[in-house]
Amino acid sequence: GAQPGPAEPGREAAFARRIDPRREPGLSPEQRLHMARVERALQRRLRGRNVLLALGIGAVTLGIYGYTFYSVSQERFLDELEQEAEAARARARARAESAGS
């Protein structure tokens, strides 16, 4: 027989089926306890990974934000330098013209 595909309605794939250990027949109390412990450990590990991922994304975001601010302030600084240089050239031209006449 052909295996049912994942898109076949009315049937969940075996690996995706979540079981409730309290309602599952044939599990001893020790097995239920073990499953609960394993699940808690997995959740703890996932929470740690999620926290690290969130901190990493936040750090990258703040870095981009800070760099953008820095580069914009540098641009303004360079614009001001350029304006000062232009004013100095204009003053030098005016002095040269007044000295030449």
TrEMBL record:
Entry GO terms, CC: mitochondrial inner membrane
Residues covered by the Cytochrome c oxidase assembly factor 3 mitochondrial coiled-coil domain: 39-84
Coiled coil: 71-98
Ranges that cross the membrane: 50-70
Family: Belongs to the COA3 family.
Assembly and binders: Component of 250-400 kDa complexes called cytochrome oxidase assembly intermediates or COA complexes.
Function: Core component of the MITRAC (mitochondrial translation regulation assembly intermediate of cytochrome c oxidase complex) complex, that regulates cytochrome c oxidase assembly. MITRAC complexes regulate both translation of mitochondrial encoded components and assembly of nuclear-encoded components imported in mitochondrion. Required for efficient translation of MT-CO1 and mitochondrial respiratory chain complex IV assembly. Required for assembly of cytochrome c oxidase (complex IV).
UniProt-recorded name of the protein: Cytochrome c oxidase assembly factor 3
Source organism (scientific name): Strigops habroptila
Lineage: Eukaryota, Metazoa, Chordata, Craniata, Vertebrata
Name of the encoding gene: COA3
